[in-house]
Amino acid sequence: MTNLVALNMSNDILLGALPDTLEKCLMIQELRLDGNFFHEDIPTALQTLRGLEYLDLSHNNFSGDIPAYLVNLPFLTYLNLSFNKHNREVPKLEGFKNTTIVSVEGNYNLCGGIQ
User: Fold this and answer.
1) CA distances from 70 to 11, 15, 44, 49 (A)
2) Is the terminal CB of the chain with fewer CB neighbours within 10 Å at N or C?
3) Which of 17, 23, 9, 22 shows the shortest CA–CA distance to 42?
4) Residue 10 near residue 31, CB atoms below 8 Å
5) Under a CB-based contact definition with an 8 Å cutoff, are residues 88 and 65 in contact?
6) DSSP alpha helix (H) spans, the chain
7) Is there a contact between 102 and 76 (Cβ–Cβ < 8 Å)?
8) How far apart are the first and last CA of the chain?
9) pLDDT tens, the chain, 115 aa long
10) 3-state secondary structure of 50
């Protein structure tokens, strides 16, 4: 899996926590896991995916904070975390230097970050 560049498992009825083994996909640029039943927090394992350009985790059941480490992914241009159960504070948007699309709609009890 270390040479995997894209993974699309959208709408595959996957459930449970997002596996930490994703951290081994060091070359991945595109990760589409939207429309499943993943829950709990977004794992810190994703912070190792330094080449990630496209991340769609929308329409799941993720909860807790939106991870601040996402602003440190240097090539991230698309981030969709909408329609989950995130709450608390959104990382400051100015940290997303290269990100042209950030969507967090449909998460209740979010505050800060987006202005």
Assistant:
1) 23, 22, 10, 10
2) C
3) 17
4) no
5) yes
6) none
7) no
8) 38
9) 678 999 999 999 999 999 889 999 999 999 999 999 999 999 999 999 999 999 999 999 999 888 888 888 999 999 999 999 988 777 665 666 777 888 888 988 777 655 4
10) coil
